[in-house]
Design a protein that fits this description.
The protein is mainly α. It folds into 2 domains: about 475 residues, Growth Hormone, Chain: A; about 30 residues. It is found in: Membrane.
Length: about 500
Amino acid sequence: MVIISCIMAATGGLMFGYDVGVSGGVTAMPPFLKKFFPAVYRKTVLEKGVDSNYCKYDNEGLQLFTSSLYLAGLTATFFASYTTRNLGRRLTMLIAGIFFILGVIFNAAAQNLAMLIVGRLLLGCGVGFANQAVPVFLSEIAPSRIRGALNILFQLNITIGILFANLVNYGTNKIKGGWGWRLSLGLAGIPALLLTVGALLVVDTPNSLIERGRLEEGKAVLRKIRGTDNIEPEFLELVEASRVAKEVKHPFRNLLKRRNRPQLVISIALQIFQQFTGINAIMFYAPVLFNTLGFKNDASLYSAVITGAVNVLSTVVSIYSVDKVGRRKLLLEAGVQMFLSQVVIAIILGLKVKDHSDDLSKGYAVFVVVLVCTFVSSFAWSWGPLGWLIPSETFPLETRSAGQSVTVCVNLLFTFVIAQAFLSMLCHFKYGIFLFFSGWVLIMSFFVYFLVPETKNIPIEEMTERVWKQHWLWRRYIEDDDYVAHEKVGNGKNNGFDPASQL
């Protein structure tokens, strides 16, 4: 039941991945450009070779088509935090599914740029609700020994969605009559329906039910998902955690308290770093990027399919390794791989791609695709899934929905920044764009080495004792906060209590 529930819930990732993958493909299709972005169409088709290769897709409207989804998701995540906490994880996923369906209808039927943007905004609202609820749902329903693997189902579905979008784009680009882009955008309805149906079929998490006062229901679900009647210790732990959570009237304010600083800092940093690896620049704009590098239209879509397939396979590697190897080792190994592949890509482009040349030679083109795949694979078994997994498993229950909301919010904010800026950055930085991202990979690897603790196989409710209080830096925040709490008790109700001697 756990696995089926997790698979159904993780289809939210399928929808998110399809949205990420489909935009890059349709923005490389001439009929789509001709209808909505005639200025780009002129530069890429009618005036080929006149403008710099790196600048031919540099258009604010085109970037807004991609990035508007993430701006809407950013706004929606604040509402999603309320529904996740007060209405449950399951209902939040259902709301996401409904937003997705409405967005698909607007996009597939778009007659002008306004309809197109409205559709993307609705899809963005779906992303905000889904990314808020699904990782929390997966972390709470999974047993700790396989929590990492089941949580990564969300990321696996994102990669499958991207691959599915790339395959669809490759096929619809060959449709005569210039309406293939409508089919590409309309087929997003399949994962949207899967998420909606899945949300109707799954049960809510025991944590959510107990948090909302439905104790017996929560106990029954816990018994069912654990497959045993011996659930009393875990149930009592959840009840106690819920009691503590209910005492917190302002979860966002509570999130800023000293004892929650380690989780908050790590969650925010992981989301910023995840985007500054440059992965979404490649995933959003893979066909556009390959076109820029001199690949012809079919070849660029074909190369995007290859990188999408590598993305899926590498995420499967993460599912098998995350609970065995651990989070830190995967992040550090990937940092080395991503840094080297991006530096080599920058060197090849700097030497071989000229501003107005039509083609990269076949040998170098294949090598660039191999290097992009090397980069994508390392991201897919590390920063992709772990950027979502680590925040979802480290926040205590009283700040979990607020913490996840901040996580999603920061992720979507920087996803929006990268989506909105990438084509302009490519125009101005040229091949240096890969050096820019590789510099960030170096910084974030040092951050992981010194500041990110290992969380594999540790139950969520034991993170404070077994992770934060054992870390060389973060334990100062937890222990200092404990000291202040004891001191308040000593100066208040328990006269004569000496906190220093007790500690």
